[in-house]
Design goal:
homodimer; elongated; Creatine Amidinohydrolase, Chain A, domain 1; alpha+beta; 19 strands
Chain lengths: 391, 391
């Protein structure tokens, strides 16, 4: 299942989950979501991780064949789990948590029927909560993703060629990201958000509202995936915002930079500086104990003082957040939004993305990934933040 | 919401759904899944499609702003739906279908609480069933995807450069697919299967079992996404199987071809011919009225007669199907598997993929997408099926 080297990390994660289980007086959590399987075992497999409040961690595996380990138990179907538990002397849970926010309704009914005597409640908040505070090993992977991400972004201007459409430019950047080690997919919590690698939006395409809960929109190339680049020619006077995912390690970094062609109007240049100032100010205030909503409010206030509210986080459609937790998935906690109850803690990781959409010009702003440290934050996506000319 | 031109198509799909609703004596179905939103409206949006057995089709939209249409009703949250229905004179349903196989447990509870007086049952089989029989317009899009897919595959040998790793080759083919119009993502029904664009597997990497329910495996580049290419050098004596998704239109085609470097052992060459023969034989038998499981059994029998059972559909781990329905998603009905109850009908679309994994050589075989016609099948992915040398 995992190498001996990885065992202490698994033990650490197990003990974090167990502590939470004991606090909620639950006996165990049964995990099926890919992000949570990866978290608890270090790999994706088809099956279930079972963590009990006081025992071992077990992996009930359907596929692939050939996984090794004392705690690996092969099953054909989830209904095999209780008898395998009895065979291995694992007590059946009386209070069991299931992932009610990712299991489908029918999957959840099927799993709960397997444990007819257990009281079942929602385990999604618990496991997502545990994942919010990253381990030193996870922070190492996020720093590594950030470094590769920044190396890739450094090469963006060299990748542009005159006469490219936004989609053509995006395709070359997708390739660049993959050559730097990006795994391509990034994981999104919830089923309604879809995207390919990330988004590149130029000119007025930035002002096309999308159905997804991403900070920025774009028409996309198809009504089947209406987000991001739309096949339009990149022309002088436009900004090009690149917000491509950095899943280089199974852990994500998030990063946005802005490029330009020709002369950019003063309003957009000014808005970009305001965004940089917001980013710097928020990053300067962020530290353990600070409320995420206060950071959001501060950003909104600064945009307002600059007279740029109507463009902040979108124009025709505005996003209701300026930052989001990040890790195995792109949308973890903390959420930097007006009604967020999250308080920053050491070892949280979040992306901060103050952006403006300027009609007829494009999007400006910046996004970086930050680790919350004991006294402040550490930026993991280091690369120039000024608008870089593609000319 | 959609153009006037698209209205007859929406009407046709609506009437297909309504007919099924009346057959199951349901009053309405409320749709939230992206694939089904796309099917019912022609675009992805954040919100819900409501189809009643005898009335209009309505779109309850959260995002994006600005969608137009008589039947577009903006809501802030799903709880707004009943009052909006009353406002628009839409009777509340007594028997309502919800997507129990794609809504999460908590989403399903939330939606059913909105209709406290309705009897709720599972609408997923109904809508997937309707989607199984494609409309002429959908068939047109699938043919278009198949044509672009084949054009892209035609260029695969020219894209290879000596000394490439499997991942490097895959990255260039991903770019090639995107330049031919691929949207990148492809939709998979169910939450457990993840992949980036498709898979390229060379040599013994073909024999590494994956956790996913795809026909072929591969170690992948990360335990976070253990499928497909693994970063190994492509060396003489290896086959390279390319199975990259063809989502060029919102509708998928599926296609696999095999390439080789240097001399390939007789066993593999022979197995490839057997695969081609299976493909041809099955395609020759497939027509309306034929049971999908009979086609599966025939394929298994032919592999056995050739003495190649141990390599068929995998070696260390074998897939339990030889084909799958395809459309908006990669895994629709019919399923060509031993326990399938599907009977082929005109306007079904399926991918047929007899493959063998030969240890120390790689995977061989073929995959094409077929439309079931009145008397047989029509192949939409036309491109040479012999093993093509990369030398």
């Amino acid at each position: 299942m995992y190498t001996e080297q990885f065992l202490p990390e698994i033990e650490l994660r197990k003990s974090k989950i167990q502590e939470s289980l004991r606090m909620t007086k639950a006996d165990a959590i049964l995990i099926n979501d890919n992000a949570n399987l990866f978290y608890t075992s270090g790999r994706v497999f088809s099956g279930y991780t079972y963590v009990s409040a006081r025992g071992e961690i077990y992996f009930f595996v359907r596929r692939p064949v050939g996984l090794k380990g004392d705690n690996v138990i092969y099953i054909r179907k989830p209904e095999d789990i209780p008898s395998e538990m009895q065979k291995h002397g694992i007590p059946l849970p009386e209070k069991l948590l299931l992932e009610d926010d990712s299991l489908t309704y029918n999957e959840r009914l099927r799993l709960s029927a397997i444990f007819p005597n257990a009281a079942i409640s929602n385990g999604t908040p618990l496991i997502r909560n545990v994942r919010t505070l990253k381990t030193p090993y996870e922070l190492k992977l996020i720093r590594e993703s950030g470094t590769k991400h920044a190396m890739m972004y450094h090469r963006i201007p060299m990748t542009y060629k005159e006469g490219m459409s936004d989609t053509e430019f995006s395709i070359e950047l997708e390739r660049l990201a993959r050559l730097h080690g990006s795994l391509g997919i990034f994981r999104i919590f919830g089923s309604s958000m879809e995207i390919y690698m990330g988004s590149l939006i130029a000119g007025d395409n930035a002002d096309v509202p999308s159905p997804y809960d991403f900070a920025m929109g774009g028409a996309g190339n198809s009504t089947s995936l209406p987000v991001g680049s739309s096949g339009m020619l990149i022309r002088p006077g436009m900004t090009v915002m690149v917000d491509m995912g950095g899943n280089f390690t199974g852990y994500m970094s998030d990063m946005t930079r802005v490029f330009s062609l020709g002369e950019i109007p003063e309003l957009a240049l000014n808005a970009h500086q305001v965004a940089l100032n917001i980013e710097k100010t928020i990053a300067g205030k962020a530290k353990p104990g600070v409320a995420a909503k206060d950071l959001y409010n501060l950003a909104v206030e600064m945009a307002e003082q600059a007279g740029l509210s109507e463009y902040f986080m979108g124009h025709r459609q505005q996003a209701g957040f300026i930052g989001h937790g990040i890790g195995i998935e792109i949308n973890e906690r903390p959420v930097l939004a007006p009604r967020s109850k999250d308080i920053l803690q050491e070892n949280m990781v979040f992306a901060l993305e103050p952006k403006f959409v300027i009609p007829h010009v494009g999007a400006v702003g910046v996004e970086n990934t930050f680790i919350v440290t004991r006294n402040g934050v550490e930026k993991v996506t280091n690369c120039t933040e000024e608008i870089v000319s593609l000319d």
